[in-house]
């Protein structure tokens, strides 16, 4: 059972034969229309929000809301109000976070749309008058003429654990980028950027972070979350929150609590990786649940469970796993399904940090100030030399700031903040394998993608928004796909277009770091409106990389690591050293190897 999916396209006998096998899937809805030489339209979907009339059919993969009233819009609402047609989407009238497909019943015409912060995406393939798209990579792979990894993928993978833009891990398979609309008119698919969130179009109205400003922001966000909860209750859907215990997920839980009737106990879940590095995460979740009054359940993931979860995650997402915690998300989705819990929607509080501040916000704020001061670099280096014997921590901070200032002068430098963020690599090894020019091109690619959506007003805003772009490009769509495989939907209120507009109305000089605090807005909201303990307590690292490296060196992943075939771009001595001394480069070799061994042979051999 591929879970919740849509597969649609225009093709001929070979494509139709492949598609028809999906008719056996429980709850699958289908449509077929022949259009002569243009091929036959085929559409199969198990998504719940589908509507049609005499002219068109619409599939809504996300949560669309009316930009004026905030009301949640169904596929039928979108169709009846002609907010979506086979020609296009009236995206300026929509809030929320959605991805849409609309096909005509009378001519070979289709439209795909993904909102600027959409977490659902379409993958597509077109060749020789054939067009196929799906939100499930495993369903699209059998339509590809060959299963090959494009050569330009490798350097991105070994630098960032992901690929960028419309790129995917398979030749001739492309991704609909966020903010894009793609139109098929019987000959070819043309995709263009139709929606961005440029700061210049959103005037700054909040320049100081006082309680009045925070209350106004909170009121707007509270009404937005209330619209989500009201719709879920009206539809009779069960829902819960993925509550890690950090300020982002805890603030979201607080907002949900305020939208519930008095006396109703909210449900929450989190995964508990049973490793030493993850103990603090479990304690954070337990403490937050107690403070926020949730009925909380931990989904335990044991060390011996991890290899199977890693392989299964690779098969579901149809590409190498990026973040090491992604298989733990699969454990939560599997738990909800296996125990038949009455939960169809899961709230996840990601992306707040990319919009409102992270642990690097303080340093970036200092950098924005220092870059405007003449001779700041030499002064900081001299200060570091003086401070080193008596205040080594302060000396380190001065040296680090001086280093970042120097890197700002070279956009190709790996130390430049726009290049170093989200970098998971042994950079020297990557350059040895692929060459310095390939690394510079990969950095430039990611910078240019973020610049297409945002016009940042400071270095701090540039870095945070580039992190948001990377999050939307890969990580969150993959997590959404995993839950969809178990027929569960994920809601991301912090990735609602209205939330982003509210955030961009706040001056970045106070949004990311203010009053000695990173992430000042959510921390102030949480401490004044809940019993959450100590919002300034460091949450700690949400991953478990050191445990992971130990597993690769001598634990449950050792056999998998030593089964990796040495890649042609890597020398034998380097390869053997990475097997014996694992790091992120080894992890990236392992995940790519699992993709090649667990996904590609299956698709080559027997389709679905």
Task: Tell me about this structure.
- This protein has 608 residues and is α+β, with helices and mostly antiparallel strands.
- 44% of the residues lie in helices and 17% in strands.
- A six-stranded antiparallel β-sheet has the order 2-3-1-14-13-15. Strands 4-5-11-12-16-17 form a six-stranded antiparallel β-sheet.
- A hairpin with a 2-residue loop joins strand 8 (84-85) and strand 9 (88-89).
- The longest helix is centred in the last third of the chain and has 27 residues, at 459-485.
- The radius of gyration is 24 Å and the shape is globular.
- It starts with 5 loop residues before the first strand and ends with a helix.
State the CATH topology of the largest domain: Rossmann fold
Which percent range describes the beta-strand content?
15-25%
Instruction: Give the count of helical stretches.
Output: 25
Mean pLDDT score:
91
The major beta sheet can be summarized as: 6 strands, antiparallel
Shape: globular
Low-confidence stretches: none
- Side-by-side strand order of the widest sheet: 2-3-1-14-13-15
């Amino acid at each position: 059972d591929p879970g919740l999916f849509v597969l649609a396209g225009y093709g001929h006998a070979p494509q139709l034969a492949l598609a028809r096998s999906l008719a056996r899937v429980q709850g699958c809805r289908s449509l077929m229309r022949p259009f002569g030489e243009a091929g036959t339209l085929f559409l199969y979907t198990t998504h719940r929000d589908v509507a049609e009339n005499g002219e068109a059919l619409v599939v809504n993969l996300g949560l669309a809301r009316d930009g004026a009233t905030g009301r949640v819009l169904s596929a039928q609402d979108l169709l009846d109000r002609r907010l979506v047609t086979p020609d296009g989407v009236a995206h300026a009238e929509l809030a929320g976070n959605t991805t849409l497909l609309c096909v005509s019943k009378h001519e070979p015409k289709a439209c795909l749309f993904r909102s600027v912060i959409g977490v659902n995406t379409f993958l597509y393939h077109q060749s020789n008058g054939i067009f196929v798209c799906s939100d499930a990579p495993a369903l699209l792979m059998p339509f590809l003429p060959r299963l090959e990894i494009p050569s330009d993928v490798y350097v991105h993978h070994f630098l960032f654990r992901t690929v960028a833009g419309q790129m995917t891990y398979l030749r001739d398979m492309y991704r609909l980028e966020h903010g894009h609309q793609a139109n098929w008119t019987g000959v070819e698919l043309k995709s263009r950027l139709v929606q961005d969130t440029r700061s210049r179009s959103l005037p700054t109205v909040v320049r100081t972070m006082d309680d009045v400003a925070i209350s106004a922001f909170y009121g707007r966000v509270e009404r937005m979350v209330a619209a989500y909860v009201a719709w879920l209750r009206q539809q009779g859907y069960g829902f819960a929150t993925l509550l890690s215990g950090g300020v982002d997920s805890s603030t979201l839980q607080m907002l949900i609590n305020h939208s519930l009737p008095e006396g109703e106990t909210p449900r929450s879940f989190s995964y508990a990786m049973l490793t030493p590095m993850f103990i603090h995460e479990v304690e954070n979740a337990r403490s937050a649940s107690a403070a926020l009054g949730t009925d909380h359940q931990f989904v335990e993931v044991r060390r011996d469970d991890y290899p199977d979860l890693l392989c299964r995650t690779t098969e579901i997402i149809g590409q190498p796993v990026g973040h090491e915690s992604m298989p733990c998300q699969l454990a939560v989705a599997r738990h909800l399904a296996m125990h038949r819990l009455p939960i169809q929607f899961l709230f996840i509080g990601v992306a707040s940090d990319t919009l409102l501040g992270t642990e690097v916000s303080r340093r970036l704020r200092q950098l924005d100030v220092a870059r405007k001061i003449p001779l700041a670099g030499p002064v900081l280096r001299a200060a570091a030399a003086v401070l080193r014997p008596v205040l080594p921590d302060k000396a380190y901070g001065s040296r680090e700031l001086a280093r970042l200032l120097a890197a700002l002068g070279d956009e190709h430098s790996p130390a430049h903040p726009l290049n170093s963020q989200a970098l998971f690599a042994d950079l020297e090894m990557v350059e040895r394998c692929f060459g310095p020019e390939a690394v510079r091109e990969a950095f430039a690619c990611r910078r240019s993608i973020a610049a297409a959506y945002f016009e940042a007003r400071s270095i701090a805003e540039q870095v945070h928004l580039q992190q948001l772009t990377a999050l939307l490009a890969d990580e969150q769509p993959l997590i959404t796909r995993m839950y969809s495989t178990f027929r569960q939907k994920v809601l991301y209120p912090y990735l609602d277009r209205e939330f982003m507009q509210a955030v961009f109305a706040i001056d970045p000089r106070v949004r990311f770091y203010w009053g000695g605090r990173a992430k000042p807005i959510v921390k102030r909201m949480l401490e004044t409106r809940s019993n959450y303990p100590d919002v300034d307590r460091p949450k700690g690292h949400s991953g478990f990389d050191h445990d992971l490296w130990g597993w690769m060196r001598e634990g449950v992943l050792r056999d998998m690591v030593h089964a990796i075939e040495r890649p042609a771009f890597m020398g034998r001595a380097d390869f053997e050293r990475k097997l014996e001394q694992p790091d992120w480069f080894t992890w990236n070799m392992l995940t790519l190897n699992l993709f090649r061994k667990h996904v590609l042979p299956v698709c080559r051999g027997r389709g679905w």
